[in-house]
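Project outcomes to date are best conveyed with an example. Our students and postdoctoral researchers have been running inverse folding experiments weekly, and each run begins with a structure described purely in tokens. The record below, which covers 134 residues, was selected by the lab manager from last quarter's runs and is presented without edits.
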């Protein structure tokens, strides 16, 4: 864990980070870093959403695809009848992930704080003591 960069940046600081990271590429493209990162595609995605009405569960699967597959993907929704009388709906959609969205999502993912389950605290303390006694 990097104590400087593994924390989420406040929005203004995040924009400064974007400016510093992409200023050279943006200059070559004749754009500002903000405009550049909002127009350059990082990833093409096909999104499959499955809704099972029986179990009342929804599953979303994002798949990275190439440009040809992305272009050929048409939004659709198909409902299947299950012998039990229930239905399952599958929705297909697509999404462009820009460089800005990619960087923003990475920054936002750092907001999730993971706390160790207390049932492991004794084991962790013992391992820490063992490591510190070396």
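After processing, the design step wrote out the following sequence:
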């Amino acid at each position: 864990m990097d104590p400087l960069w593994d924390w989420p940046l406040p929005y203004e600081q995040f924009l400064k980070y974007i400016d510093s990271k992409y200023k050279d590429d943006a200059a070559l493209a004749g754009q500002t870093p903000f405009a550049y990162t909002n127009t350059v595609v990082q990833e093409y995605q096909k999104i499959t959403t499955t809704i099972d009405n029986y179990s009342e569960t929804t599953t979303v699967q994002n798949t990275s695809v190439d440009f040809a597959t992305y272009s050929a993907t048409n939004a659709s929704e198909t409902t299947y009848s299950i012998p039990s009388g229930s239905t399952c709906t599958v929705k297909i959609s697509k999404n462009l992930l820009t460089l800005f969205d990619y960087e923003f999502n990475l920054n936002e993912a750092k907001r999730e704080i993971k706390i160790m389950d207390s049932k492991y605290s004794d084991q962790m303390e013992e391992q820490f003591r063992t490591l510190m006694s070396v």
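Helices lie at 11-29, 33-39, 67-72, 99-109, 121-132. The first strand starts at residue 41 and ends at 52. The training component of this project remains on track.
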